[in-house]
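Quick one: structure tokens for this chain, please?
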Amino acid sequence: MSESAIAQAGKPEGKGGFPVLEALMGFVMLALACFAATWCPDGLGRDLAWFVFVGAWAVLAAFVPRIFPAKGSRSAFVIGGIFFLALFCLALTLLNWMERSGGQQAFLISAVLVVFLTIGVRLFISRFLTRSAVAAMDDQGWTSLGSFKRVQGQRVRRLTMITLLIAVVTGSMSLMNAGYGARWFAELPLSGKFEIVDPHDAKYNKIPLKAGDSFSREQYQTLQNDLKDLVLVGGEAVTVTIDGAESSFKPGDLIPRDLAKKIQNILRDGRREGDSQELKTSEAVLPETRKIDQLGMLLLPEGQLKVVALSIIGFFLIWRLVNVPSFADFLIATDSEMSKVSWPPLKKLWRDTLVVVTGMFLMGGMIMAMDWVWRGVLTSISVLQFPATTDDKNRSEDLKPWPAAPDNTAAAATAGQKQ
């Protein structure tokens, strides 16, 4: 056997490298599952479709080793898919924020965030998405439904699972009650339409806008540009002669900014001749809108189904946790130690509990009695002084007023008379 063959045989399996194909396949299939759910009818059908498509992705993960026989392929598919989907959603959030904010400051902040994200991605990949890392995850069974030493430590395992599952369910319900019950939706930038929620000053336009009107992105951008060049007339109606023609402007009219300046100059010149008219204007307020029919990916359903989804995910993670070899051995050892404990009979347990509780009450009564006796004794000889009013009792020492300084004026006057 050659030296190169010996070196190849001695090389640890799955060491180094990055499982690109498995991770990208996991990401693409998971993104398609979330994206396909948004094309289903809105409402309960869309949420149920999310369960179907994401469940199909989980089933596909079980067959990944048949497609990619390399060790750790299933973990690379699942972990890499979830990681790159989260990274893709962060990128969409950043792009949507830049679209809404705009300006140089938004681009500078975005550049800083991109740098930090790049460093975080590099660290995550080098730590969790190497061949050796995903192979270790497969060995520990993180992405499988198998169990480790199933018949051992069942009591402690079940108690641990029940406790953690209660925490997951109650946490999900608290999240929903806190106002996060809506769908988690990753929006694609530069997609969808705008619907008018409140037209504001756009209701005075030549073509008045009303709540419920919808526009494409191009139409809404044109509307914004038009309104930015207009001002709203306020105050009282004004009549002015412009280029030989008399024109009237009443409150609520939207006029070009250049025309408003021209009218104000004409009225300013007219005031020298006794004209007291004045054109009052204000910036036109753009309509308030919301996005509709926007493309994107449904990450989690809404309402009670979100609690169900988070509970299923949490149950799977808890199941995997109690079957990780290192943690499972700890739970098995704990169950073994608990079986060695000599548990008292129920009758003896009640009797001992009664003795302890009675002793606590007797000890507390004795301490309280001694406190009242010594309080009375020390108060009677003026060693202790207690405030008389409730306000003084509840007032912090830092907030109590300083004692008034003694008035030495009368004493000084008396001393002067004696001299």
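The two ends are 123 Å apart (CA to CA).
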